Description:
globular
Amino acid sequence: MQANIAYHNGAAWIEIDGVKTEPVAYRSFWPQGHTIKNFADRDFQFYGVFPSGILCSLKVPYSQFGEVWTGDGQYNWDNLRAQVDQFVNNAPQARFALMVHLDTRDWFMEENPGCADSFSRLAQTAGWQKWRLAAARYLRDLLDYLDRHYPERVFAVFLFAGATCEWYTRNPAEGLEPNPIAEQVYKSWYGPDAGMPDFAEQRRTTDGVFRDPVAEANAIRYWRFLSEVVADTIAWFALQVKEHTNGSRLVGVFYGYLMELPNRRMITESHNAFTRVLCDQNVNILFAPASYSWRRLDSTSAFLLPVDSLRLHKKLYFHEIDNTTHLANDNPYAKALQQYAHKRMANEQQTIAYSRRESALAMMHGQGYWWFDMFAGWYDDDHLMDELARIRDVTRRFWQDDMRSASEVAVFVDQESNYHVAIESCVNECLVKNQAEALGRMGAPWDCYVADDLCHPDLADDYKLYIFLNLFKPSEQIQNQIRRLREQGKSLLFLYAPGYIADNGFSQMAMQTLTGLPLVRLDAADSVSGQINTALSGQEQTYGFTNAVAPLFTISTDDATGIDVLGQYADNAQPALVLRQRGDAYDAWSGAGPVPGAVLRELARQAGVFIYSETDDPSWANRSLFGLYAHLGGQRTIRFPEDVVLEDVYQAGTLIPSIEKNVVLDCQDDEMRLFRILSSK
């Protein structure tokens, strides 16, 4: 078997022995035979097999079949066969992603005193070669056993480790306890004299929320280590898979949640080395749950990671649609999940609306998704199963169309800057996570990348507006590319403190050079709230940080020629949202975030971006797909760049022609409308 990721017209495919299949799958911690059969009977091709003997975060077993890895080179193969046979018997044509749980087991820690439990303290174990070698042996033996007894079944290996199997290091409030193995690895990376900073040094900042790259260099190095050692471990295991299978299997991981994690989790929990994993040639697939923050029916749905970087690097993304359904509301584990992560669906109509919305988001970006029947019972209803098959059939049809991007807005999130921001600040939460929800209400599609990809040679050059969410410490390459974009007549929007951190400290001059705007630091006494008043959207709006943030910035009056002040700080009336026209383009800056969707819409319009919707409803568009989700029913008028005919994919045979490039949609409450765009010519 030879498995690859193939792109065609902007859509990602799983290609096995030359046969391409759309990337739609099923997985469960506790798979049931009848559920597997329900998916197989509806022609689902891909399934996840997850042997594990570890308790999940709810303190119940991940696997209902018992442990397989019982000692170094010792296995309970009967437990593995019981799980695989359940799939083979109920889905005879299934292809499997083998989800290998690499974490330390109790027997390993008993044999190796001082070894931290990798499930909760991953960064303290990740770089230790003794654990890596033992886990790699387990991985290889698993693959060999399955290839021997179930040939031509395993198309991919998904590497699971760390908290919730997502390569997290759970960092307690008091910090990670000293660990001789971790210290040994740390010194092997940075030299025999390198010492880990104590708790106070780890969290110290020099200028408000910002670490000085010189004064806090030791702390920055420590936080960088927590992410880099995990990314290095992912790369090491990915290489083991490729070498052992002669490159025939795909490799995937949960990693790189740059669009969701707040400062207190991003670097403490080891998720800030996304580009290392993204650029690893041995990692083919990244996956993540649907954004926990924006699952509500009155919200937009969103990704945890910069998804368009995966398309740029020719990798596949799987969007994990795992939210509890209306069928699971009495399930005790579903109730526990609904307390902090999942959103309760009251009935089938809500479940279907949510399912269509999450899948539409993945489809717009040409990416895959899987249905996660987490603790079983999420989908045990024939009508709902028919709906999931219908969504898959819609995907299958779209995958024959041109699914390339139609976005004219490119959004960039910077991972390097995260190392320089205080752990307890609200900066990432406001500028990145909350901004993603507002971008979803802009009325125009947008693509999202990690900032390093601004310099990628294959990045499209037809974007009109570039938005930089948290570019506090740009590399020289990124600075040079921004200068080129300005020369090319592109519009640029920067948030909060762009370029403020230079290699040797803080620099207002660097901010001014990067943005083309005379940004200066406000005295601490001049502004406290970080709230901004603006009427750019046609109505008064106030937005900004959820907590006090320092430093804050404004525009120098010494060089304000040609600058339009579009918003002011609420507590001192200093300029806080500004724009300077540059021919047909502009340089713009907001001193805080998240910038509301309606304000972004006006900024996008001024940049020449085509606006499809004038409402705050989330909408999606590429070259062949248009979708709109209406939380509240009513008429919506959608405008297109040219006259089109819309084919309603969920109402077979329904064609809606535009009239003077406008389409009027009648929407019910919580309705996801999804269309194929057909040219009227």
